[in-house]
Automatic annotation (TrEMBL), chain A:
UniProt main location, coarse: membrane
TM region(s), chain numbering: 29-52, 102-125, 137-157, 193-217, 238-256
Name of the molecule in the record: Cytochrome c oxidase subunit 3
Keywords: Cell membrane, Membrane, Transmembrane, Transmembrane helix
Similarity field: Belongs to the cytochrome c oxidase subunit 3 family.
Subcellular location: Cell membrane
From TrEMBL, chain B:
Species whose genome carries this gene: Rufibacter roseus
Name under which the protein is recorded: Cbb3-type cytochrome c oxidase subunit I
Residues that span the membrane, as ranges: 45-63, 94-124, 136-158, 190-216, 228-256, 289-310, 322-342, 354-379, 391-413, 425-451, 463-484, 512-533
Keyword Chloroplast: no
Family, similarity comment: Belongs to the heme-copper respiratory oxidase family.
Domain spans labelled Cytochrome oxidase subunit I profile: 28-572
Chaperone as UniProt keyword: no
Location, primary (coarse class): membrane
Keyword terms, alphabetized: Electron transport, Heme, Iron, Membrane, Metal-binding, Respiratory chain, Transmembrane, Transmembrane helix, Transport
Taxonomy, superkingdom: Bacteria
Listed SUPFAM superfamilies: Cytochrome c oxidase subunit I-like
Signal sequence range: none
Amino acid sequence: MSQTTTFEQPKTGTWDGGNEPFKASYGKLMMWFFLLSDAFTFGAFLTTYGLARHRHRSFEEAQALLPEAQRLQEFEFSTQWWPIPEKVFNAFPGFHGVDWPLAFVALMTMILILSSVTMVLAVEAGHRMDKKDVQKWLLWTILFGSMFLGCQAWEWTHFIAGDETGMTLADGSKIYGANLIVNQYGPPLFADLFFFITGFHGTHVLSGVVLLILIFINTVNGVYHRRGHYEMVEKVGLYWHFVDLVWVFVFTFFYLV
Amino acid sequence: MSSTDISLHNDVHSGHDEHHDDHHDQSFIEKYIFSQDHKVIAKQFLFAGIFWAIIGGTLSSLFRMQLGFPEATFTFLEPLLGKWVEGGKLDPNFYLALVTMHGTIMVFFVLTAGLSGTFSNFLIPLQLGARDMASGFMNMLSFWFFFIASIIMFYSLFLETGPAAGGWTVYPPLSALPQAIPGSGAGMTLWLVSMAIFIVSQLLGGVNYITTVINLRTRGMSMAKMPLTIWAFFLTAVLGLLAFPVLFSAALLLIFDRSFGTSFFLSDIYVAGEALTHTGGSPILFQHLFWFLGHPEVYIVILPTFGIVSEVISTCARKPIFGYRAMIGSMLGIALLSFVVWAHHMFVSGMNPFLGSVFMFLTLIIAVPSAVKVFNWIATIWRGNINFTPAMLYSIAFVSLFISGGVTGIILGNSALDIQLHDTYFVVAHFHLVMGSAAFFGMFAGVYHWFPKMFGRMMDEKLGYVHFWITFICAYLIFMPMHYMGIAGFPRRYYTWTGFDTFSTFLDMNSFITIAAIVVFVGQFIFLFNFFYSIFRGRRATENPWKSNTLEWTTPVNPGHGNWPGPLPVVYRWPYDYSKPGAQEDFIPQNVPFSQTASSNLPHERDFE
């Protein structure tokens, strides 16, 4: 064989091979690159949202085009203009008929951010090899993640069912709620994008909760303790923070601007 | 085989390594089907790629027959194609499906999965001095996701309404409305599902390639000592990782438009007098999303062959590659630019001419790194001691095709010229030369060159030469005349063109192209015979038949699981020390330390002795 007998050593710098230049295992690197790729997927969806939003008039723009006498004083839903999110997302479970703009979605966001905090604590406990703490914080994260999904389910239900005001069409008929084809709140694309993007994000959260449950079971069974490190918790943690970060963008695009 | 067997077993028994002992215990299924060995997965991709290439080539022969002999009747096709050929005439919808599937299969299934899947898998661990990919399991999943995508796409060929027929770019609204043409029905649904799974496969493969290159280089293998093949595969994987997810998004949105009534890509539209409910969407958006993948995609196809060709040319010219760092820099430049030029495919979509000129500017800049590469290849061959192996012939021809096709790229990149040339055969000629034929030639170069390491035997050289000259001559005979037709405005994707007086003068030229296309298609069976015959009956290979420097040639003739029987090789030098003045032989492999080559060391290398 051509294996050379040698007394000299090759170079041993950070990038000279035989080591991990980013001080990260291959599994962690893979998770980072997957997230980079996933960011482009979400990027494409948010670009789609931006373009659709741009192609429709806002309420003010639509009003400015009308003669003075026909202008509406109060915002109302119409397919002629993009809805104002504060008017769409103003309901709260258990409080019928209130107008609390974005209160519920703010609560959802808080819950998701809290779950990120507990995830950080779980990863930190993993570094200390503290099995009990890892379990505790993973459980909290699963709880908050599931609560977020529950909130989203309620929000979707409310969005689909609509409220009694509905939207009056040109022929005088009324539509209530929204689905992929008709939309009480404005142009159909608004509902399409709402369902698609929050749905895609929700699928990510759901996958995250499933992953968390799996690593929780492994932690309880002591798999990671025997392995000597809790890197799997870190990897799922990376994913979980990414999903959180994406929500921040979704929240900004859908609810704030 | 006996001598290599002995050396292999000697090493096993003196072994200090745990990997190679277990490969005897693997069952057939673990070893050849659900294998996690990168070499087996590479061969799986190669065989799948060859299978798809035969299908893709057959489809092109069929539509070339229609184009070359528009008045002829092909009754002999009826038993094979059933109702797609009625009274000897190809059904127009079938023609559209043929063109669409030819493009899809060649671009994605052959030149993306077949090319990267084969050579990235095979060469990354071997040339880096790694036992295997970072995650063998994900690598296996990558192939099997590709396999599922292949089955779905293959199945769609046999649907009664035919496979997708809206062009390989599947632009809505044509592709989004099942009632538009038969090919936009179930065939299109399966196309989208298959592509979504294909993208998952690419993602699994891509993260693996990137991570392996970053973390699993052997000791001494710094980034600046990597063979150019590895740089090429690395950048290809990065492109795929960033571009494919956008196609994934577009495919998902299109699936929703088609199947669930959304309007992402559809605005107010009538089909057959019936108003559809869709409103507010933008078909141009799809083009943007598609070409954000689509343009990097052509570099995903061509970059691996840049690497393969650099390696083969340097080895067979017995000269160091000219401008190693410039080669890396130009590949980085091309990879970066590939993300900011996508709209040059859309100059006639009604975009703002100012925006068009921005994309034109960025597009034309790509000529610079491309020219750097071409000059470097030519400078490497210049006054080399050339071994004209089949792989070398294919590599030189690659450079030729890349120049011929690249020059027309500069013409097409000009937005004003593109208005005349858009959707004509000029475009077809351009991309078939620069990414179709060139990538195929690079792939052939790779197969001929690394066949000994893949199968432990040599391919027959004489058959290789025959195959080469048929393929090379016909590639030009097919695509050169298409430029003339394109400049005259001959449109692509037309089923009948004899109805236009302007184009009827091209009857002979079209027949000529078709004959050349069929000759080259038949010629590929020489390769197929050579390939399969040599696997079983070829001349036995030695460990390093081309006297090459890279690490894969330091493995046994048939590397086992784990690649090196003993410890991993260690790297001291760059991979292109060919014909170094003062050296005993005309090549010094990467794992030879400078202390053993005192006679040939350059002044600055004496420090390493």
